């Protein structure tokens, strides 16, 4: 009988202790971010999907030389690129660069192996689509669109 | 095992999972019940099987790097560490001292993050909603710190053979020091709110008790084993990386129940903070990446590398045959052994206690199925 009341007493005590903590927390600054309406800044080192970056010296061009290193090294086989030889242009010219983002595991191997540092990570983290094909990104079109 | 028909009509079968919130993944447990009592729980595995070991054997070894993080999403960096460790050991490469320190720092942050999530989720399983909000606030700080250096928040692919991808900067060091201070100030609050709560204690004290002998027989590792009084931790028993240079304790309890596993993990948080502090103080200068041959071939032979994941002992066993593709890769995951105890541990237990038991084992199902 004595134990029973002791238990009720200690239970009530721990309840009050817990309530005090939650009460104190209630007056602390709010940490929740109301996501779609407000957004936190993204770290500059965040790794989104890969993008072709433009040359610093010749800003009208990307640096890809179609060597296909990234395509060969990719663990998920999600890169597909093609280049062609053109009259009067030194080296290969990139004609398509497709990234299948549904398969990409963001390991960063392609960025590491690129001999001309033509690839970088984007800061995009919101990917929405209704079909699988919506995530087959055309990186060449992206970098060309950026130029305009 | 006798069938239900033979045991009378009071018995029935309850299917827990594969989509059950307290199994934390796609684990299915077939429960043979008698009223509220579990008579025979049988876990069914394989819903999340992705052939990780086979994948390692069918492609060049660098292509397995992102896979390591997908096995145990809560301790991805520690899985990274184990994989690069085994390749380094087989190929005879040494990472730079600075890289080893960075690996330890990020691994310990990852361990803290995993323990904080477990703390919140265990209490959530038992019906208390508030603590998970507080643990997630702390956990979010770790994720921000790690995101800044690794580039991702959960499935990191940060470590490479010979070092790490990106060197840490002053911002990372400052952020981690700030976090250590913050986490220390939070622990008394958890002590009062969770450990001191009488309902919580009643739910996990003397629940799921087992002896050190049983733990040994089932190959249990990690905080569950240390809860029975065996101070077995890979960081001490078979030191890897730069762990021998740090001064930390291996917390143990003697009761072997859910409360013991709980207390061990909570005390481990403090030990991880101590390791972090020492590692940040001792952090050497130098490159974060060693010189590694561009096309590294795995020599013939095999190597083993064990690391301490938040759930127990993780062992990578790699066999090379002179090509760049491993001949065989075997991964020993802690949760698999820890789960195998479940049928013996939970026989004759109340259904609600089974949830507490599974929570204290801290199972990560993708790691079991892998």
Short summary of the structure?
Chain A is built from four helices and five strands; from the N terminus they run αβαββαββα. Chain A is α+β, with helices and mostly antiparallel strands and 148 residues long. In chain A, strands 2-3-5 form a three-stranded antiparallel β-sheet. Chain A has a two-stranded antiparallel sheet with strand order 1-4.
Explain this structure to me?
The complex is a heterodimer of chains A (148) and B (370). In chain A, the strands form 2 sheets. Chain A has a 3-stranded antiparallel β-sheet with strand order 2-3-5. Chain A has helices spanning 2-26, 69-73, 109-113, 139-147; strands at 50-52, 79-85, 92-100, 119-121, 136-138. Chain A is of the alpha+beta class and 148 residues long. Chain A contains 4 helices and 5 strands, in the order αβαββαββα. The model of chain A has no long low-confidence stretch (mean pLDDT 84). With 370 residues, chain B is an alpha+beta fold. Chain B has one domain (6-48, 93-296, 339-369): Cytochrome-c3 Hydrogenase, chain B. Helix content of chain B is 48%, strand content 14%. In chain B, the strands form 3 sheets. Chain B has a 4-stranded antiparallel β-sheet. The chains are: A alpha+beta (148), B alpha+beta (370). Chains A and B meet through helix 1 of A and helix 2, helix 5 and helix 6 of B.
Which band does the percent of strand residues of chain B land in? 5-15%
* Secondary structure category of chain B: alpha+beta
Class from helix and strand fractions of chain A: alpha+beta
Q: Please mark out the parts of chain A with pLDDT under 50 across 5 or more consecutive residues, or reply none.
A: none
Which radius of gyration of chain B do the C-alpha atoms yield? Answer: 21 Å
Beta-strand fraction estimate of chain A = 15-25%
How many domains of chain A? 2
Q: What is the approximate shape of chain B?
A: globular
- Total E-strand runs of chain B: 9
Q: Any guess at the CATH architecture of chain B?
A: Orthogonal Bundle
What is the helix fraction of residues of chain B, given as a range?
40-55%
Count of DSSP-assigned helices of chain A: 4
| Domain unit count of chain B | 1
Q: Let me know the average pLDDT of chain B.
A: 87
Order of strands in the sheet with the most strands of chain B? Answer: 1-2-3-9
């Amino acid at each position: 009988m004595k134990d029973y009341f002791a238990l009720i007493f200690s239970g009530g005590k721990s309840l009050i202790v817990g309530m005090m903590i939650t009460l104190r927390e209630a007056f602390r600054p709010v940490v929740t971010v109301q996501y779609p309406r407000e957004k936190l800044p993204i770290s500059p080192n965040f790794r989104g999907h890969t993008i072709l970056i433009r040359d610093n010296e010749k800003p009208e061009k990307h640096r890809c030389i179609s060597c296909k290193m990234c395509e060969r090294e990719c663990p998920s086989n999600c890169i597909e690129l093609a280049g062609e030889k053109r009259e009067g242009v030194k080296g290969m010219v990139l004609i398509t660069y497709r990234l299948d983002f549904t398969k990409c595991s963001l390991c960063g191997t392609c960025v590491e192996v690129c001999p001309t540092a033509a690839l970088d990570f984007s800061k995009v983290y919101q990917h929405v689509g209704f079909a699988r094909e919506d995530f087959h990104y055309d990186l060449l079109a992206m970098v060309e669109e950026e130029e305009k | 095992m006798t069938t239900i028909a033979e045991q009378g009509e009071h018995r029935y079968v309850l299917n827990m999972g594969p989509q059950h919130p307290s199994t934390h993944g796609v684990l299915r447990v077939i429960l043979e019940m008698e009223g509220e009592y579990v008579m025979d729980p049988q876990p069914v595995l394989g819903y999340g099987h992705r052939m990780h070991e086979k994948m390692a054997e069918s492609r060049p070894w660098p292509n397995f790097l992102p896979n390591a993080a997908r096995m145990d999403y809560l301790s991805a960096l520690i899985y990274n560490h184990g994989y690069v460790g085994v390749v380094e050991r087989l190929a005879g490469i040494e990472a730079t001292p600075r890289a080893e320190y960075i690996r330890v720092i990020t691994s310990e942050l990852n361990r803290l993050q995993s323990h904080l999530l477990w703390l919140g989720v265990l209490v959530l399983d038992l019906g208390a909603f508030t603590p998970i909000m507080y643990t997630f606030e702390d956990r979010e700080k770790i994720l921000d710190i790690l995101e800044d250096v690794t580039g991702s928040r959960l499935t990191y692919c940060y470590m490479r053979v010979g070092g790490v991808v990106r060197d840490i900067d002053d911002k990372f060091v400052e952020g981690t020091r700030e976090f250590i201070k913050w986490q220390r100030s939070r622990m008394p609050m958890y002590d009062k709110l969770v450990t001191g709560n009488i309902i919580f204690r009643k739910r996990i004290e003397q629940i799921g008790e087992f002896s050190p002998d049983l733990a040994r027989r089932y190959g249990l590792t990690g905080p569950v084993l240390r809860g029975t009084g065996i101070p077995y931790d890979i960081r001490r028993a078979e030191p890897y990386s730069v762990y021998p240079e740090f001064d930390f304790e291996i917390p143990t309890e003697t009761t072997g129940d859910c409360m013991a596993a709980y207390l061990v993990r909570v005390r481990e948080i403090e030990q991880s903070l101590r390791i972090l502090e020492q590692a940040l103080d001792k952090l050497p200068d130098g490159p974060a990446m060693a010189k590694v041959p561009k096309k590294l071939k795995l020599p013939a032979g095999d190597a083993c590398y064990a690391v301490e994941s938040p759930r127990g002992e993780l062992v990578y066993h790699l066999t090379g045959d002179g090509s760049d593709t491993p001949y065989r890769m075997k991964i020993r995951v802690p949760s698999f052994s820890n789960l195998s105890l479940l049928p013996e541990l939970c026989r004759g237990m109340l259904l609600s206690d089974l949830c507490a038991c599974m929570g204290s084992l801290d199972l990560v199902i993708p790691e079991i199925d892998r």
